[in-house]
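User: Predict the complex.
Assistant: Input components as received:
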Amino acid sequence: MPKKPEVVTLSVNGVPESVAAEPRLTLLDALRDELRLTGTKKVCDMGDCGSCTVLVDGRAVYSCLTLVMDCEGQEITTIEGLSRDGELDPVQRAFIEADAFQCGFCTPGQIMSLRGLLNATPTPSDAEIKRAVTGNLCRCGAYLNIVKAGHLAVELQWKVATQ
Amino acid sequence: MRAFDYSRPTALDEAIALMGQPNGDAGARPLAGGTDLLTLMKAEIVNPPQLVDIKRLPEITRAIETNTDGLTLGALTTLSQIETDVTIRRSYSALAEAAELAATPQLRNMATIGGNLLQRPRCWYFRNPHLDCWLKGGADCPAREGENQLHAVLGASPCVAVHPSDPAAALLALDGTLQIRGPGGERTLPLTEFFAPPTSDRRTENLLGEDELIISVRVPAPAAGTRSTYLKAMDRKVWAFAVVGVAAALRTVGGKIEHARLTLSGVAPIPWRAVAAERELVGQASGNDLFARVAEIAMAEAMPLSQNAYKVPLAKALIRRALASTALTP
Amino acid sequence: MTMLHIDKLRRGHGTEDEYKVVELDPLPRWGADAALAIVGRPHVRVEGTEKVTGRARYAYDMRLPGQLFARVLRSPLPHARIKRIDISKAEALPGVHAVLCVENAPEIGWYRDSFVFDRTLRFAGEEVAAVAAESERIADDAIRLIEVEYESLPFVIDFQEALKPDAPKLREAGNLVDEPKVYERGHVAAGLREADVVVDRVYTTQVAHHNCLEPHGCTADWEGDRLTLWDSTQSVFDVRQQVAEKLGLPEHHVRVVKQFMGGGFGSKQIAWKHDVIAALLSQRSGRPVQLMLDREAENLAVGNRNPTRQHLRLGAKRDGTLTAIAVEIEQGAGAHMAGGEGSETAGMYQTLYRCPNVRTEQCVVYTNTGPAVAFRAPGHVEAAFALEQAMDELARRLEIDPIELRLRNYTERNQLEEEPYTSPDSLRLCYQRAAEAFGWRGYQRPPATGSKRRGIGFAAHDWGGSGYPPGYAWVKLNSDGTADVVTGTQDIGTGTRTALTQVAAEELGLSMDSVDLHLGDTANGPYAPVSSGSATQATIGPAVRAAAADAKKQLLEAASKYLEAPPERLRVRDGKIFVEGEPEDRAVPVGDVTAAIAPHMIQGRGARGPNPEGKSVRTFGAQCVEVEVDVETGDVTVLRVVASHDCGRIINPTMVEAQVIGAVTQGIGYALTEGRVVDERFGVVLNANLEEYKVPTVADVPPIEHAEVNVPDPEANPTGAKGIGEPPLVPTAPAIANAIFDAIGVRAYDLPLSRHRIFELLAAGPAGGERAEVSA
């Protein structure tokens, strides 16, 4: 039977949010159902696919295997938080330019994984780019272009940084 | 996932006390990375009435400490930390390689070493909520006569599921020990004793008490000339549990093997130490003939089930390769 | 320019009346030499920004005020009868708004002979009850409170077992779905007698799961007696028609919307039970209801690629000329015939190679497993694994190069209808381009190093992909000179929005930025068929072009008044209207003309015309792969793939390449790692998840080169483009199997080529690995 909700305070894309949550509420469901941030996708809900990837304190994690209670006081970044003032993140731009998706359902997760990589490693190798998305399944088979987009994002990010 | 209570104690004794309380038909479970526990709960394989968050206890850390005595990993150390730590990569290579080959980057960012050692088998009968299985308290093991292509070839137990951890095999090869705290205080348990195949009165893969917590993992500093590695065969190039994994640690002095550890994952209900094979290695001059013979010894006791005989030649191949890559030839 | 009218054809011998479209005012065709500015060039996806920002709204993303979430209780048993079901505790749970089961739901027929909620359950995963509640969690809690007493019935899982006379029966009439379907031309017995060599083998293929990342599901909402469904579907109009029929509603009271969809691959081309269940739960609760399947249900209940057993005999003369193709095919349907596109495994045997004597027999069998449904090139994928390996084996026996053998059996005609192809040279071009780009001739096998063995393999295929009428589009020119194109088709992730926008912009003479394409809504656009059969571009592309041409004609008539020049002398290019033969500075922006006539508006209408009479429109392809097999560990690594596929004119090379690479990627999964595992003792699927059902990851995909053919097929339709979505999946698995044979000298007759199977092959060795021939 459902448990009485408790209030969890967390920061989502830089905005403080309070969510009344049962202990069993996952971060994924909190984002999608409570905060209506549906860019983060629910696919397997078992940590098998990567479509629910978000950044918690800058690191890529599966939000389906994260309880929202565990996120008290933490900084969550979702796909909705990447573009600022209408300006797309370099990873997002790279995905469009490199045609790194078809149906687009895995795309937010793929982008968040690469964002997590670039946060920690601004100039990753090809192997590091591939490794960063090994936990993100794409059933349309856009992998080759996802890797291309990873490389392109590095270039675009460098250009932004040196402008 | 069924509803549960959640508590976040701030002291270790408080956490242990919570876990010791009888609470419904199953006890409270500790929550760290959650990557295994939550999947078990979503499939309703376990339905704990309470989760005890152990991530904010001062006594259990995510610290990696290395000194001349060896390596200490706080139980909350993530696989990502292990994979990227320069000292572990250099001096405890098998562990870094096993961490790197486990799961996915996101899971490695979440999963803790303590939880990794405690994770339950991936057996598709055990994990299927619609099927009964011995490990879940049922009468029989359906895998023994069923779809057992991924199951055990070694290790006698009523359960033929394999232990899923990659780092466990590496830590076993590196003579790791656990610091454990329970209501009665602290104890130290070598991993060789910690893991034990399930028996009729203990349907788990280890000897941790229900009210005990792993505090840290310690690995002694390897003697000069020791090299270790972890090799893994998967059913995809990445992101799969080991069909067979092999960890080897060898100390070769002047072409002669002085110390040997050989452990396997994916082949037995627990991370498997090939003791007879280790014995055969010590004192011998390293070489391919020796490694081939040792591989045969390591798998001599294998009892394949109806669909997993291929694991035997596969394990032998990986053993030969792991030994060849860790042996220092003069 | 409404160019069509409907003709009634009366065919002889009592066949039914057939209506067909006749084109009255055909468009000039874009031939090979057409000067096109936008069509044929790469363009990024027009919906890219929505998809990379998370703003693209999928069926799963609907969040309406008061929305409830639904969950479904499914049968844990493969064959059972519900003796008793009690939903009262579930209904009483706070937060639960509606519960449906066989006791309280209307009796609505489903599949051929079942009901949405049936008392008899024929597979583990079949729907037993459904709950709508304020959260998925509460709905799950309620599901656990439903008490069901089942009477377990005997069941059969394996489709070959199901054919045996004493097998448990799913239905009174037995397990055979229909009478076996037989096709014959010439005399295969004579053809086999004539043969110098006969390859006689049995091949089996596995059950594969689509595993679309977005599960099947929808959100249903009523306004009075009008229903709206936001559905994850490949066919808004089919879902509308089917749901209206099931619920007894007039079609105009059902609106089906699909803007974005997280993959379909064939499995979402029909209405499934969730559409009706969500509508009923919404009706009962008076609230919008979202019913999305979980991953397990997605793997159990909404389609899969059917398993096959194919006994193939291929007869040939010493010079390689085929004298007979005879195949007996058995395939599993699962527990129900789901409808939609059928899996015609027999098809490719009848058409791919020139052969006077062909006999195919296909029988479809019910089993107590989830229903099969079309999966990307249904039937052809399964058939290719057998036929293309048999051709490889024949080539080796005759010591003829595999490509040369195929050239010796080349056909420029569709042998089913004895009609010439509109593109008779396409397959030859595919052979040529694939072989050249790969370096097939002169391939130097690297010396075996340690345990690693290299090999190369080739396979070919044909497919439909012609498109067909009907299909419609409208074009509206706005006062500022921009255009809205409206059609009832879907973009299922294939790039339809982008490619259709290119067609419209090209014909209108506008820039891509000036054209918006609207689709996926039965209430906002004319009929378009299901997005399946690789038909969308070839069906709707011409309709969009016709609508644009209609609008352009009207625009130029208006412009002729504005510019005081006869319409015949006016051209539109880059958003401007030029007068032919006059200085470019007399050109005026389209927006000047549309603004001048505003608020009057130009509206174009277009329809898909008929396919050519007396000719056959087909697509073709060929692939070469190189693999490496580690004979000690059983690891198979695909090192590279070259894929060459004919789809007529390439509208957008970026989108076509994505289809090719994506399909090959799925083909690698089908060949090596994917396959449903069922414990036949319990009738339960063991890997109904993305952990043990192993779709390829980023690390499983080698370099895949698309060796373009890009020869327009103007006889096919006025755009010259044909389909590409499905076919590149067809030859991948047999090409890999042929390459594995080349590497290790052992042939694999059973999919998937898992490590387990590779070890079996290696253990059998080159001699033992050749499965004993059935006869010959």
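Chain A touches chain C through 58 residues (CB under 8 Å).
Let me know if you want any component modeled separately.
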